[in-house]
Specification:
The protein is mainly alpha-helical. It has a domain of 43 residues. Helices cover 35% and strands 0% of the residues. The longest helix has 13 residues.
């Protein structure tokens, strides 16, 4: 069975969520990606419920992903 995401406590307190907003949970990308990839590969319908959700990533990861998107060869 695959690994479950690990939850890390931050040294900085998280801001309180706004009313009606879900609390944030921090997970590593290494823990998250295999689970999302499996759900995508197996076409689990619940994944579609979260496609419009925003995720927070570091600026350096954003730059790498942006460069990857622009330079990847077409099929």
């Amino acid at each position: 069975m695959g690994a479950f995401p690990r939850v890390y406590s931050s040294s900085e307190p998280e801001p309180a969520p706004a009313p009606g907003q879900a609390a944030l949970v921090r997970v590593t990308l290494g823990d998250l990606l295999p689970l999302v990839a499996l759900a995508h590969r197996k076409n689990y319908l619940w994944l579609q419920d979260f496609l419009d959700d925003e995720v927070a990533i570091t600026a350096d990861l954003y730059e790498v992903l942006t460069a990857f998107r622009c330079t990847r060869p077409s099929a």
